[in-house]
Design goal:
Blueprint lengths: L2 H31 L1 E6 L5 E4 L3 H22 L9 H21 L5 H8 L3 H10 L7 H18 L12 H28 L4 H23 L1 H11 L2 H27 L1 H23 L5 H20 L10 H8 L2
Antiparallel strand pairs: 1-2
């Protein structure tokens, strides 16, 4: 590509990531924290809350599977030789991370979830040392410490809490579980990469396939699948919301792969991390999620630590194509 075409390609990819995942965040909060219908409840509130977290994740996984399958049909790749056990265990931890993160939105505001999930390097580092026998530089530990301090400042509550937070402690426990599962997923993926080096597309295909099977079984066993369809039929506008969030996720992934393939993971990391920061701002401005000064300072520390880690903390790691998968997981 020429210099001008390179810049145009980069701009299109960056704008695509921003637009798709901005909209993904809007739809995610609209579905999980909004209300459907006009019936008045006993507590004076109007409408029903969407509580079918497993079904929401299942819709995304199934759509992502079909999307990646189409990509591989259009552009076939060499046969994947990765052991099935890696994909099954990785899908389980990835699935638990997604479900926990989505469930947490019932008790914590979206900005809290975004900042907490931005702290993913913490469990990845800890579990990398404990399970992956990896070592890190002092500089790396410093950047992670900055992120930890930022997360603590952002999530610590003193005195009066918001009106939806009588069970906020449960939401924070779910975020901690989600981060722990993210760390386990990263450790499994490191071993996967060392053994067979699968492409990002193959990883996405297999993990979403396993996740869809697991979620399908869970929806049948728990009965949530039947309840979800009953809720959706009662409130048909939900189908539109589900289609929109699935499309935003799929096209967001497409733009991420475009950027990773054309320019490498670093520019994509910068774009996706910047997108997260503006997602917090957008949620505050348009959904009325109020942040106090300490939380703003904590959020700024988190993103300072992330940017410092991207620019100065990854020299010991070889960039791999399948880092695109990890970037996509950060968007959930």
């Amino acid at each position: 590509m020429s210099n001008l075409k390179d810049k145009q390609y980069l701009l299109i990819s960056a704008v695509g990531i921003f637009v798709c995942y901005f909209y993904f965040g809007i739809m995610q909060e609209k579905i999980t924290r909004g209300r459907y219908g006009t019936e008045e409840n006993e507590d004076g509130t109007v409408g029903e809350r969407f509580t079918y977290t497993l079904a929401l994740v299942a819709v995304q996984c199934m759509f992502n599977y079909l999307f990646v399958k189409a990509i591989l049909i259009v552009k076939p790749q060499p046969k994947d030789t990765t052991h099935t056990g890696y994909y099954a265990s990785s899908a389980l931890t990835y699935l638990l991370a997604m479900v926990s993160s989505n469930m947490a939105l019932r008790w914590v505001a979206y900005p809290t979830q975004v900042v907490a999930k931005a702290a993913k390097p913490i469990p990845v580092m800890i579990l990398g040392v404990l399970l992956g026998r990896k070592s890190y530089s002092l500089r790396k530990y410093l950047f992670v410490l900055i992120i930890v301090i930022g997360v603590v400042l952002f999530m610590y509550k003193e005195g009066k809490v918001n009106k939806n937070s009588e069970n906020a402690g449960l939401g924070e426990i779910l975020l901690f579980l989600s981060l722990s599962m993210d760390g386990l997923t990263g450790a499994i993926q490191e071993r996967m990469r060392a053994s067979s080096r699968p492409s990002a597309q193959h990883m996405m295909l297999s993990m979403n396939s396993w996740s869809s099977v697991m979620l399908g079984a869970a929806l049948l066993v728990t009965g949530e699948g039947k309840e979800f369809f009953a809720f959706a039929l009662k409130h048909p506008e939900l189908f539109t919301h589900l289609i929109l969030i699935a499309l935003a996720s799929a096209f967001g992934q497409l733009f991420i792969f475009m950027m990773v393939a054309g320019f490498g993971p670093l520019p994509c990391s910068i774009v996706t991390t910047t997108r997260k920061f503006f997602t917090v701002l957008f949620s505050v401005l348009f959904f009325g999620n109020v942040l106090i000064g300490r939380q703003w300072f904590g959020a700024i520390l988190v993103f300072i630590g992330l940017f410092a880690d991207m620019f100065f903390g990854k020299k010991e790691v070889d960039p791999k194509k399948n880092e695109g998968k990890k970037l996509i997981e950060n968007e959930k």
